[in-house]
Sequence to fold (65 residues):
Amino acid sequence: MNDRIVVDPDILLGVPHIKGIEVPVWTVVEMVNAGLTTEEIIAAYEGLTEEDIEAAMKYHEEHGA
Fold:
């Protein structure tokens, strides 16, 4: 599994999320699909990086989460 994406039953009820900032993968995917730019998504969550967004999209493609 990508080291930027975490699945932990004690955090967000096991929902896949970005390590360290607890933003669910599905949130990032929805923002990308809604047409937000990388800069807009990063601005919405302190600590989020372009690499985190890429990891979330890859995780979604591989796991459908």
